[in-house]
Specification:
Pfam families: Zn_ribbon_GRF. One of its GO terms (molecular function) is zinc ion binding. Keywords: Coiled coil, Membrane, Metal-binding, Transmembrane, Transmembrane helix, Zinc, Zinc-finger. InterPro entries: Znf_GRF. It is a single chain. Helices cover about 40% and strands about 10% of the residues. By secondary structure, the protein is of the alpha+beta class. It has 2 domains: about 60 residues, no CATH class; about 50 residues. The protein has a 4-stranded mixed β-sheet with strand order 1-2-3-4, with no helix packed on it. β2 and β3 form a beta hairpin. The radius of gyration is 28 Å and the shape is rod-shaped.
């Protein structure tokens, strides 16, 4: 599938709920993938004639913002990684507490032996 810029002409629409059966020049839109830095990998419906010369610059997002499957997978992955990080932080805090307690006890025993 061809890459597609998400910055289109004035007749473009990012607020369409669903895709049109035809674009502004009467052709059926095709599914494309955005290659912009703002929307990398986001799917959209665009004019089949885009960048050919007689294209109408029609586009509509295939999924509403925030409902893109790739975005949802990344959000799920981030949530999972956050949970793993919290578990690791708790284990580290416990290990640190046990270590401090152990060194404190060793210091007290050594202090008792010296006195």
């Amino acid at each position: 599938m061809a890459s597609q810029s998400s910055s289109q002409g004035s007749r473009s629409s990012t607020k369409n709920r669903g895709r049109r059966r035809t674009c502004f020049c009467g052709e059926r839109p095709v599914l494309r993938i955005s290659s912009t830095a703002k929307n990398p990998g986001r799917r959209l419906w665009g004019c089949i004639n885009y960048q050919i010369g007689d294209g109408c610059d029609y586009f509509a997002w295939a999924e509403p913002e925030g409902q893109d499957p790739q975005i949802q997978r990344l959000k799920n992955k981030a949530s999972s990684l956050k949970q793993e990080l919290q578990k690791a932080e708790r284990k580290f805090a416990l290990a640190l507490a046990v270590g401090i307690l152990g060194w404190t006890m060793a210091g007290l025993l050594l202090y008792d032996r010296l006195n």
